[in-house]
Specification:
- This protein is an alpha+beta fold and 312 residues long.
- The protein has helices at residues 21-29, 33-41, 116-122, 156-167, 240-247, 262-267, 299-310, and strands at residues 2-11, 45-47, 50-51, 63-72, 86-90, 94-99, 147-153, 172-180, 187-191, 194-196, 204-206, 214-222, 226-233, 275-283, 290-294.
- It starts with a strand and ends with a helix.
- One of its GO terms (biological process) is enzyme-directed rRNA pseudouridine synthesis.
Amino acid sequence: MSESSDERTLEVPEGLGGERVDVGLGRMFGLSRSKAADLVTAGRVLLDGQTAAKSDRLLPGTRLEVSFPVETDPLEVVEELVDGLGILHDDDDIIVVDKPVGVAVHPSMGWTGPTVVGHLRGAGYRIATSGATERQGIVQRLDVGTSGVMVIAKSEVAYSRLKDAFRHRTVDKIYHAMVQGHPDPLAGTVDAPIGRHTSSDWRFAVREDGKPSVTHYETLEAHRFASLLEVHLETGRTHQIRVHMAALKHPCVGDLMYGADPTLARRLKLERQWLHAVRLGFEHPGTGEHVEFESHYPDDLAHALEVIRDGS
């Protein structure tokens, strides 16, 4: 749980004159002496604007200010509009967004930043209620550090049908990735199971006991220091492209978590992996027609690509 504050201000009553701060605080707010002492020690108690000590004595009429910590649910959806989050399509069944870097799809443990779900709620969009509370309507995810196109279900029917489509791998998920060096062969398939890294909860790795993971790639451009790839995901594991490219010894440029060269990243002014979800194609859950949506490279990735092209 994370904390916010509940601020309380009152005057010390006559009956508590001369009492120690922690004792008086406990009596005024129905707290144990130890809990009251913890608040004082944490600097959450002020007497006439000055930080109190436990042994200070209360004087009648003194202004007492207390900042009580309030636990908040880390999975609570916070309605917050996100700069740069674009709406590519909106109808009764789906909403397709262009997610910027630095935005999570939905709240999760340890994440305190903006979310796609929070933006949509804040902007007044109605999304499906299926799924866990913090990720209602979510049928796919993109990493916080990955930008690009994704779809969210607005109707319950759309949620069910899109979930099935992703589960049965009938959705075309196309990414562009700039990787270090030149993959050999220039086009191919990586079929290697992925599981959590043995030394980190936040990293993943190719593991024999991992979940089946299949990535298809082809080289679009080959330059002196890096190659631009088009990647088709057959499965959708967390960090799949990043893990598979690192396993080939060609990590995504700027992906320091998975072994990218920090010197090259600095030269390109990249603060994240060069990875972008460029196209998403699927059968529309309402009309049954095939639809496809695209997202252009954001400025940081476009700049890095131009520098790489100029250095060829």
